[in-house]
């Protein structure tokens, strides 16, 4: 089944050929076989192709307007509401009833596309057949290309986001490690300071203790020195005295000191009592 059936006069073959070729280049299938032309009867092949065609293009010229077969084929297309009329010569009046149907002028067309006249014909074909397969494929290709581009952009965006996320994770991990290292150094420094302070306090305590011990020893020696009488230096008079005599003298001196101390304390007590109770002598 062809997309386009072109109805034309055999003498117009060379003018129709570029039209058919451009339609084929656009991806439409075209039935316009010139071998079945040249005065042959309305064959079954033509009848079948005309019946199956999705669109009928009739090419009007000064020769085709007088062709019974061209008019018959155009009538088929008109009855199916798939007819597109084209005139390739000026001052051409299509036969009734085609003279009241819009006809696209394609006069002095060089057989190349694009052309304003040709583009209008293509638009009429699009209204019947839809977009040309080539355009559809091009649109699909562009759509696929755009889809791949968007997929690539999405992939790159995802990779960029993953890269940024990984960089951020690494940065946070490095920051965490840096803070942990700073904390470790701070704690180490605090321990060092605390150890130094403790050592300094212990040193001061040792020095203070040693100083106290020295002072205690000094006072103890002073007390011993005050309590213990000085030994008389031996002379000629004492060297001959016996040791028991020296001990006896020492005891007597201690006794005398004790008696004298008791007397002094008694006198101080009496004086204090008289000072506190001055009315005491008057009682007697």
Summary?
By secondary structure, the chain is an alpha/beta fold.
Q: How would you describe this structure to a colleague?
A:
The chain has 284 residues and is of the alpha/beta class. The protein has a domain of 127 residues: 3-Layer(aba) Sandwich (Rossmann fold). It contains six helices and five strands; from the N terminus they run E-H-E-H-E-H-E-E-H-H-H. It has a five-stranded parallel β-sheet with strand order 2-1-3-4-5, with helices on both faces.
**What fraction of residues sit in β-strands?**
5-15%
Which fold does the CATH topology of the domain at 4-130 refer to?
A: Rossmann fold
The H-level CATH homologous superfamily of the domain at 4-130, spelled out, is: Toll/interleukin-1 receptor homology (TIR) domain
Segments where pLDDT lies below 50 for 5+ residues? none
Span of the ends, CA to CA: 170 Å
Structure annotation, total helices = 6
The helix-strand sequence is EHEHEHEEHHH
CATH class of the domain at 4-130: Alpha Beta
Largest sheet: 5 strands, parallel
Structural class from helices and strands? alpha/beta
What's the β-strand tally?
Answer: 5
Mean pLDDT figure: 84
Radius of gyration: 69 Å
CATH architecture grouping of the domain at 4-130:
3-Layer(aba) Sandwich
């Amino acid at each position: 089944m062809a997309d386009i059936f072109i109805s034309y006069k055999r003498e117009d073959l060379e003018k129709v050929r570029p039209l058919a070729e451009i339609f084929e280049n656009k991806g439409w299938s075209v039935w316009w076989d010139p071998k079945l032309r040249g005065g042959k009867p309305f064959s079954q092949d033509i009848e079948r192709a005309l019946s199956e065609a999705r669109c009928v293009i009739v090419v009007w010229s000064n020769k085709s307007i007088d062709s019974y077969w061209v008019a018959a084929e155009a009538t088929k297309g008109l009855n199916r509401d798939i007819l597109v009329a084209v005139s390739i010569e000026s001052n051409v009046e299509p036969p009734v009833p085609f003279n009241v149907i819009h006809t696209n002028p394609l006069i002095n067309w060089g057989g190349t596309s694009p052309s304003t006249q040709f583009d209008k014909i293509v638009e009429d074909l699009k209204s019947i057949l839809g977009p040309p397969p080539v355009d559809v494929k091009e649109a699909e290709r562009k759509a696929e290309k755009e889809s791949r581009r968007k997929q690539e952009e999405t992939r790159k965006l995802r990779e960029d986001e993953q890269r940024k996320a990984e960089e951020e994770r690494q940065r946070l991990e490095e920051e965490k490690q840096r803070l942990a290292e700073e904390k470790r150094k701070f704690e180490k420094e605090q321990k060092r300071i605390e150890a130094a302070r403790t050592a300094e306090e212990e040193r001061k305590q040792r020095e203070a203790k040693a100083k106290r011990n020295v002072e205690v020893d000094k006072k103890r020696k002073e007390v011993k020195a005050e309590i213990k009488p000085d030994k008389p230096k031996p002379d000629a008079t004492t060297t001959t005295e016996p040791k028991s005599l020296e001990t006896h003298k020492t005891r007597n001196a201690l006794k005398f000191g004790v008696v004298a101390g008791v007397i002094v304390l008694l006198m101080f007590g009496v004086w204090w009592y008289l000072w506190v109770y001055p009315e005491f002598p008057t009682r007697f």
